[in-house]
Amino acid sequence: MNAASEFFTIRTPIAYGGAQASTPLAFRWYDKDRVVRGRRLEDHLRFAVCYWHSFCWPGLDPFGGETFLRPWHHGSDAMAQARAKADVAFELFHLLDVPFFAFHDADAAPEGRTLAESVANLNAIADVFEQKMATAKVRLLWGTANLFSHRRYMAGAATNPDPEIFTYAAGQVRAALEVTHRLGGQNYVLWGGREGYETLLNTDIGRELDQLGRFVSLVVEHKHKIGFKGPILIEPKPKEPTKHQYDFDVATCYGFLQRYDLLKDVKLNIEQNHAILAGHSFQHEVALAEALGVFGSLDINRGDDLLGWDTDQFAMNVSELVLVFHEILNRGGFTSGGLNFDAKIRRQSIDPDDLIHAHVGSMDACARAFLAAADMLDAGVLTAPLAERYKGWAGAEGRAILAGQHSLADLADRAMGSGFDPQPRSGRQEYLESLVNRYV
């Protein structure tokens, strides 16, 4: 039985219908073949469906059990369930007409009694993926290993006080990286869900950071050994599940990568929900990663400002997204990264077709925001005032200061000169905010 044939009621891929489309299941803004600044919209946005929330999460929360009752969550044959799940996943990829998907090893295949058995299961399901990809459009944006769910990782994976846990994690990552490479993945993600600590009473921070630095270095070394060309991505996250995460935000991750000489091979996968938990805006984290040269990819979702944990809702806030896409597009856009829907439908959204509605709505919101960002860039709405504000640094004197051609004494002597009386200029924030609103 093909599980996909009995799961969704929708049978044909979602099409672009334009702003006046009469059906609720049509793209109003996402015209994948529309050319914007020299590239098709599909090639700009590079949408990916995530395997974990879309097909593995059963709809539970801390106070209640599953609500979705997916057929592949129940049964005695775990590998048969994994194959049924793959059937439904690739049907959704087809209906959404997305170019990419992403997965953890534990999403795709059941864990065995030993690591060897788990790896065998993963490779068997990778065979299924490979067969389906041979006749499908969808490709792999990235793969990763789940180093946080099993009880062995309750004190971390790379940062665990037990080197045998570190070793087990290395085995998992090698298998997941090699499967990602085999499937043509464009990136590989290291999500450090439990790479942090709860209390300093039982934690040696310096030792654990060195362990984490060595682990990431080992992954980079193996990436080169097997010929994997994509970057390794680390995903900043400030808290939940651990109180103190070593990958707190973009700035923290940059310092870590710099210290352990990993900047050449490792970039960042940024998420809106994690930015909010770190006390930053989504735009800030993206802009800082771009400025530091470590921007890689995005998990596109949103959090709830009233709640202090990952709600992982589908991104629908056009006003927020337009500023993020303005940052990305102004720097040239994605290379190997993309927009991965690390998002969950709400646990009350129990109809299978709700998965389709959620993705279509968020894809349209992203497209609408992206098109507005492109229009803003073409008109110089923010870039022209920014250049004007910093024009002094583009002049001869500003360039000389940054090039080290003046000492502190030289600058001080100039400031002491007769008639030297610089005056502040308005930042014009409200004016700029009103300009942005014209495009949103």
UniProtKB/TrEMBL annotation:
Principal location listed in the UniProt entry: cytoplasm
Positions annotated to bind Mg(2+) 2: E271, H274, D310, D312
Catalytic activity from the UniProt record: alpha-D-xylose = alpha-D-xylulofuranose
Active-site residues annotated for this sequence: H104, D107
Domain of life: Bacteria
Binding site for Mg(2+) 1: E235, E271, D299, D342
Cofactors required: Mg(2+)
Signal peptide span: none
GO molecular function, one term: xylose isomerase activity
InterPro entries: Xyl_isomerase-like_sf (IPR036237), Xylose_isom_bac (IPR013452), Xylose_isomerase (IPR001998)
Documented EC number(s): 5.3.1.5
Cofactor binding mode and count: Binds 2 magnesium ions per subunit.
Annotated compartments: Cytoplasm
Protein name (database record): Xylose isomerase
